[in-house]
Each structure stands twice: as C-alpha cells, then as structure tokens.
Amino acid sequence: MEDKLTIERISKAHPKIKKELLSLYLECNKKLPKNVRLRFAYVFRSPEEQKKLFLQRPKVTNADSWQSIHNYGLAFDIVLLYDKNGDGTFESASWDNDKNWQFVVSFFKSKGYEWGGDWKKFKDAPHFQKAFGYDWKKLKSLIDNKNTIFENGIIYPNI
To answer: Would you say 114 and 121 are in contact if contact means Cβ atoms under 8 Å apart?
Structure first.
C-alpha cells in the first residue's frame, strides 16, 4: 500500500528521476512487510526550508540554502511507518536501523542511489540522492546560468 503523501512529494522530484523514483518507491514499498510503510519525509526542499533546517539546533544538517541536493529535487529522506495496532493507521514513525530500514537502504543503493549513512563526515541515515556526478556548486551554477527546467512552479537544473 503506497503512502499518498510520499506520492505527492515524489511529484516534486527533478524531472530526470521522477518516474524512476515513483516506480522504485512502489516496488520497495510492496516488498516490505504488511505492517510497514515507507514514507519519503522530504524530496524537493526549497532554499527557504533548507535555511530553517540549517539554523535549527540541535544541528540536523551542514547544508545551507542551495547546498543540499534536496534543493534541486535529486534527493529524498525516508522514515518507516509502522501499523502497531493492525488497524491500518501506520501512526508509529521510526528511524531505527532495523532489518526493514536496512532492506530499504540496500534496495535504493542497488538502484544507484547514494546513501547518506555511508558518508564519512556528517552521516545522514535517512538521506538518499542521485546527483549524476554533480555537486551542489555545479547544480547551483546551472540554475544561476538559467540552464533550467520549470515544472510544478519549481526551477530545476537542466542536467
């Protein structure tokens, strides 16, 4: 069973990964146990939303506005939702590194997504990205140079 909020969030992903991401989300979610649902907590994040997270304490990110791959629609963060009562409510959110979490990590890594849990410095276990070899500086330069795609009211770099 898919999560409608996640489907909505995927609709704001970069056009280069949107269809693939939706397909992979649906496939991964179907492979999880019936009492577990995958949710994407973030996909696209505006520079203003990024700035708020950057200033948040305790610290949750090292990335200021335009320094996150989320700002370009090429990243997503996950959370697992559990239906602990068996009534289909999926009210219990978890970021625990359990077997279901590791299944999701392995699934997306096998599809070419970089996992923030593998990073040497600021590990970010909920984070995945597919930046096609670009770093945030190059992605920002593409937007600054008007090498863009405009979709859903969002400006994406044309990669």
So the answer is: no
Distance CA 156, CA 149 (A): 5
27, 33, 36, 40 alpha-carbon torsion, rounded to 10°: -20
Dist. CA 25–CA 19, nearest whole Å? 10
Does the pTM surpass 0.90? The reply is yes
CA 9/CA 157 separation, integer angstroms: 18
Domain ranges of the chain: 4-157
Q: How far apart are CA 54 and CA 60, in angstroms?
A: 7
Query: Which tens digits make up the pLDDT trace of 77-106?
Result: 999 999 998 888 898 999 999 999 999 999
Candidates 136, 127, 124; CA nearest to 104 is: 127
| CATH number listed for the domain at residues 4-157 | 3.30.1380.10
Whole-number Å distance between alpha carbons of 99 and 157? 36
